[in-house]
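Input/output pair, single chain:
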Amino acid sequence: MKQSIFSTLAIAAAISFTACKKDKGSIVQPHVFEGKVKTFFDANAPKYEAFTIDASTGGVLLTSKGTKINFPANAFKKSNGQLVTGSVTVQVKDIHQASDMLLGNRPTEAGGQMLVSYGEMTVKANQGADELQLNAPAQVVVPAAPKAGANGQFLREIPMWAGDSALTYSINGNDHENLPVTLSQTGYVPRGINWVQNGNFAVNNNNGTSTFNLDSLGVWRNCDALMGDPRPKTTVLGYFSNQWNSATSTNYMGGEPSMLFFKVKQQNTLVKLYNKIVNAPAGKEGLLSYQNSFPIGIEGTFLAITFKDNKIYAEMQDVTVGAPASGKTYYGVTFNLTEVTETQLLSLIQQLNTK
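Output:
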């Protein structure tokens, strides 16, 4: 589990949490983006595409990313169980590239294990003001499929991962008579998605596509395979030698003023380093990976980003992760950030797609 203190929540309380299933009655915590961080991600994050279909007859949607979704007849129902007829608006957001994973805060790892993604998506539907549920699953065909697994074996099935980040957390404080109180609440915290296998699988069609059943609306689903790199692992520490933003906190909220990402070479895998290096001297501030999660010898590209004083700083660096030095338990990478424009930062992020 990542180290985490939800300092960005507007409460003076210590918070602890455990993962749980998303619940429509959950309290929704806002995405905490500030200033230029917010404007940049709001402008460039992946957007929903809207479609209209007849609920009675169903229909096939084709997104701009090449994903097909086949809704059967009578696929939708209202929250009271009533079947829906007439026109329905379906909105789809699907992600297939590293740049969209970064901009959409959807990196591909699960508990420190790197995932190779073959498509991430969320779908919602409404009729007027009514948010709809699925009465019958829709069939999804994504334009990607693995050729072989980590051992060179053909993968017939690919695990499906649920991407809800609803958490149960405790708020500890004092009430109006100064008595200690602990409240348990559930809320959605966009912490970059905590992918968890949901027991379903996508079928590799052996023609460059994979098929799975969409089992729910309004939640994220990821069609992924574990990278399964057998090499010994180490912990990576990313040092911002300059332009570290001290306002960066250790939390799951996505849009921190200093961020660090790693794109695995020639793999559709994007890792976000969340954990803040604490009590660091000048030049050693930065972020670190999960403990012992990076294979020694893995090649890839780091992208370090800082939003500071209404300016943007960044550095992209190709790295082969080495073994720890004698007596050490980590591999360090130092970044020297330079000022970039929003256009230049977007270009660096898009370059990750070809790395």
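The first strand starts at residue 15 and ends at 19. Residues 1-33 have pLDDT under 50 and may be disordered.
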